[in-house]
Design a protein that fits this description.
single chain, 76 residues, mainly alpha, elongated, ATPase F0F1, membrane, ATPase_put, transmembrane helix, transmembrane
Length: 76
């Protein structure tokens, strides 16, 4: 595997921005999954079943989103 020597890809601010977006994106998906799971649990009186399901679904979507964000930087 060879490194891309494009000066545009060597900018540390760009790397910081990508890492920040990855963290915020993963956190938002997790929090939305938890929030939806909690609301569904309150509706069906099934605490904490849907909270756990919402957390797992939020993590899965967060990982999927992060993969989509970093794929262009890997060149795949």
């Amino acid at each position: 595997m060879t490194q891309n020597q494009d000066p545009k890809n060597q900018n540390p601010w760009r790397a910081l921005a990508v890492v920040s977006v990855i963290g915020v994106n993963a956190a938002i998906f997790l929090l939305v999954g938890l929030w939806i799971g909690k609301k569904v649990d309150l509706y069906f009186h099934t605490s904490p079943v849907f909270l756990i399901i919402g957390m797992i679904v939020g993590i899965i979507f967060g990982i999927w989103s992060v993969i989509g964000l970093i794929k262009p930087f890997l060149g795949d």
